[in-house]
Design brief:
Elements (H helix, E strand, L loop, with lengths): L1 E7 L2 E9 L41 E8 L22 E3 L2 E5 L5 E5 L5 E4 L29 E4 L4 E7 L2 E6 L14 E3 L12 E2 L5 E3 L2 E4 L2 E2 L21 E5 L5 E5 L31 E3 L4 E3 L22
Antiparallel strand pairs: 1-2, 2-3, 4-5, 5-6, 6-7, 8-9, 9-10, 10-11, 12-15, 13-14, 14-16, 16-17, 18-19
Length: 319
């Protein structure tokens, strides 16, 4: 089986292709090969031992089913969002395909038919940017993320997603939210920053779960790396703190300051106390982890997207 995203006209579809003729025997026949992480496994190896599709059988692939990035069952009215950018890798666990919709919400599909099994209603997403589109449609409450996270302790199984500026945990079989998770089933990721400048929160990647801790990156919504004659690069920007939350309760467990605070390790590399107003240094790409070591690995961006003269030093933890 291959999971892939494809652009067809102006609509982005989720496509699953299966070999239509006799398949070669192999580990794929075991039926226990799943895709529980964005990168295949916690270490993001991006490898699957499935061997039914190879250079000899690939010519026999046919589309088994296709599903819109915003399935009909999820849509609210005729003006459902059609993502202009849908770089999404779904997860597949226990016969269900978990995807991020055009609303930025989570839906589960039957892996054999592509039909919607459950979805988290779009209306429950805290609005990240409550602006009304030109066509008069209701506010878009989020954007699709690059992937989701899956967690189980053997008894409980959860799908973790970021919808708008909220971190949500959904029962993997039913899609129901956990009322004791965060505040009435969600965690507001725009809160908790020491230097918050407004504008909500934004991040299109997925949490990484290590030892029952959900790790998220991103930046406060006011952070912006687009400059022009009207919007010049600023010396003061919000930092991209990395945060860890309890997977069962949504409680904030720790915060790692990619721009160290005063007296923290590495603050001496930010000369003239430039750490006090510097920002960025966030994680925009994909993190990976290691349960055995208890580590999470962070691809941290530069703290200085443009002019760096107001930020003297060597900048620990960022490029």
């Amino acid at each position: 089986m291959i999971d892939r995203t494809s652009r067809i006209g102006s609509r982005v579809l989720l496509v699953v292709a299966l070999a239509a003729s006799t398949l070669m025997p192999g580990r794929a026949a075991d039926g226990d090969i799943e895709w529980r992480y964005y990168g295949g496994d916690q270490g993001a190896k991006k490898y699957s031992p499935l061997d039914q599709i190879n250079k000899d059988t690939v010519k026999n692939l046919r589309i088994a089913w296709r599903q819109s990035a915003t399935p009909l069952e999820v849509r609210q009215g005729p003006n459902a969002p059609v993502p202009y950018f849908y770089a999404h890798t779904p997860l597949m666990v226990g016969g269900l395909v978990y995807m991020s919709t055009g609303y930025g919400t989570v839906a589960a599909l039957d892996a054999t038919t592509g039909k919607v099994v459950w979805f988290d209603p779009p209306g429950r997403v805290r609005e990240q940017s409550p602006t009304v589109p030109r066509d008069g449609a209701p506010p878009v409450r989020g954007t699709p993320t690059r992937s989701l996270a899956y967690w189980t302790d053997g008894k409980d199984a959860r799908v973790i997603g970021i919808t708008g500026q909220s971190l949500v945990a959904l029962n993997a079989r039913t899609g129901k939210r956990y009322p004791d998770f965060g505040d009435a089933g969600e965690v507001d990721l725009s809160s908790g920053y020491e230097r918050y400048t407004g504008g909500g929160y934004k991040w299109r990647s997925q949490p990484v779960i290590v030892r029952d801790v959900m790790v998220v990156g991103g930046l406060p919504g006011a952070a912006n790396d687009i400059i022009s004659e009207k919007q010049l690069a600023r010396a003061e920007t919000p930092p991209g703190d990395i945060r860890g939350y309890d997977v069962r309760t949504g409680k904030l467990l720790w915060t790692f300051h990619t721009v160290p605070r005063a007296a923290e390790f590495g603050s001496n590399t930010w000369l003239k106390e430039s750490y006090a107003y510097s920002g960025n240094a966030g994680v925009w790409g994909m993190m990976s982890g290691d349960d055995e070591l208890g580590y999470v690995y962070l691809p941290i961006e530069s703290a200085l997207d443009y002019y760096g003269g107001t930020h003297p030093g060597e900048y620990s933890f960022s490029g």
